[in-house]
Amino acid sequence: MFAELWESFTDALEDLGSVIHFLFRLIVNTPPVLLRFSLISQQIFNSGALSLVIIMLSGLFVGMVLGLQGFQLLQRFGSEEALGTAATIGLVKELGPVVTALLFAGRAGTALASELGLMRATDQLSAMEMMAVDPIRRVVVPRFLGGVIAMPLLAAIFSVIGIYGAQLVGVQIMGVDSGSFWSQMRSAVGLTDVTEGIAKSLAFGVACSLIAVYQGYYATPTAEGVGRATTSTVVTSAVVILFLDYLITAAFL
Amino acid sequence: MRKSRTLNLGTGSFVLLGFAALFFLTTQTTSRGLAIFGPARYELTAKFDNIGDLKVGAPVSMSGVEIGRVAKIDFDSNDYKAVVLLRVNERYNKIPTDSDASIYTQGLLGGKFIGLTAGGADTYLKDKGQIDFTQSAFVLENLIGQVLANFTKSKADSTSPEAADPKPTEKTK
Amino acid sequence: MNQRAPIVDIRNLDYAVNGRPVFAGLDIQIQRGKVTAVMGPSGTGKTTLLRLITGQVSADSGDIQVAGQDMRVLSRTELYVLRRRMGMLFQNGALLTDFSVFENVAFPLREHTDLTERLIRQLVLTKLQAVGLRGAAELMPAELSGGMSRRVALARAIVMDPELLIYDEPFVGLDPISLGVILRLIRRLNDTLGITSIVVSHDVQEISTVADQVFLLSGGKVVAGGTPQELKTNPTEIVKQFIGGLPDGPVPFHFPAADYFSELMSRSEDH
């Protein structure tokens, strides 16, 4: 039994090495792809613009819940006026980047993995190789970069909509003073908080996009292989996101 | 070809929206705002013995009106004082050179801020000027120390030597 | 370049996968300008041979020359340059699913050349005409039948005017009509374009009608080579079994198993 554990540990280590190696390959192949920006912008559309609806809806609801919970909690200390601060800090530093990343993994990540997995299974990637077109440059790097660029933007949109959601509940419904909501927020929230959020969403963007394209590119070329690739994407992304979240939060302290 | 037009439109709008959100977060939610868009400001320095927990970004006010913000906090190792850099809105350029800067507390237990009280001079502070008259922050421990010191002193005066209260440790100022 | 030299020259090639040898001392030469068929029972490594020729995998030892280039010393860039002189038709067509038929055929042109839209259009339509699908230019791959997508893939493979065309099991799953179309195209393209064609297949009857040269692979080696006629009269056991489609022979019918009688008897005793 111990031997099995050790083997799965070394397998995981091997996978990690493989993923990092893949990341380097993507980074090395990024400069030539930047010259063909149309490929990247198409992927920004696929990963970002098409995820807008779910991100905005989720942002709204999360913000509203934050408004409710925050108000209830702060009321116990007589500090309802600090709702703006509480909601903003919660969203910008944690909920915005993390929830957006999880939703991204579910929507855009699985799409990337299944697209690449399907191309692998139907020999499209091999066909490209045979046509002397590097599939890493033509197909994989644009998708990776598209995800990395889209993520921080999505997280920012999520946070902004969330803040308005919290305001909707707090000010319009629960009666917190609008002026205090914004002015307390302005004085308490610092640029460091916002920067922390942006750093997180960039890191999450790299992680989720990398995991998604890796799973798709190296998927077993069968129908089940593609299915497994998509589920692995979501599961692995979720764990990595939460782990990175802790790391970055600690780093900014 | 039509497909790529809507595609580009969609991508462009999304990216614009994203950057607008980022801009909003960095400028509208924080105390900094964007220096380029804010009103023009000039800088003044003030040195304090003790700034307490005054933070960068704390307000600078005069007669209760916010006229600027604390931009930077430094330490002068020559005279062991805290050097505070204030950024004041250009509109308020009639602060007399003998004005004084004190560190106050917001509310009872709130954050610290700097309050300026106007002096009587005819000349006004200009950019890179220094406020010479300063009063340090109120440090709670010092007050407790003072109270205890006065308490034991009055006790010693009013009572006979048979009072065997153990002397409390004096907090040094 | 010596025009009489074989376009693919493999000598004493060894290749193993996960320790299991696929080829051991393989010798095969493919002549220019001809249609050469490579046949063999399932699992003998026919597709692997193609991968070695196209540089998708590397040999463990031995000599492999393609169009005068030593495959074992090529850098990645040089390999890509070489691949532009080849065209490959995959088993299921392998068309890019997001692009139309026209865009699929135009893909190599767009990636590798700076031709104007007009020129690209003319080239693409010409190639589509050669395979009989000019009218289907605006369709998407999902709307094509198996035979049609293979023809589109063929048009795409010839759009850069390659010297060598490789077909990986092009007849699998086709109805007799589509099969006949592809067969005819293989022969016609080879002759009109003056190229070399390598066809991996195990449709003995069909490929024999168009091939100039046939190689039979078995056990990691070439067991027979010659014209289709020569192979039909070849007395070697394995050749006879393959050509004749006989169920048992050098390639056994039964998967290796224990003694039949004893296995039956032991089964009935266990509960």
Topology at a glance:
The complex is a heterotrimer of chains A (253), B (173) and C (271).
Chain A: H1 2-28, H2 30-34, H3 37-47, H4 52-76, H5 83-121, H6 124-130, H7 135-173, H8 178-188, H9 191-217, H10 223-252
Chain B: H1 2-28, E1 41-48, E2 59-62, E3 65-76, E4 81-89, E5 100-105, E6 112-117, E7 129-131, E8 133-135, H2 140-158
Parallel strand pairs in B: 1-7, 2-6, 5-8
Antiparallel strand pairs in B: 1-4, 2-3, 3-4, 5-6
Chain C: E1 8-17, E2 20-30, E3 35-39, H1 46-54, E4 61-66, E5 69-70, H2 76-83, E6 86-89, H3 101-112, H4 117-130, H5 146-158, E7 164-168, H6 176-193, E8 196-200, H7 204-208, E9 213-218, E10 221-226, H8 228-232, H9 237-244, H10 260-269
Parallel strand pairs in C: 3-8, 3-9, 6-7, 7-8
Antiparallel strand pairs in C: 1-2, 1-4, 4-5, 9-10
Helix pairs in contact in C: 3-4, 3-5, 4-5
How would you summarize this macromolecular structure in one to three sentences?
Chain A has 253 residues and is mainly alpha-helical.
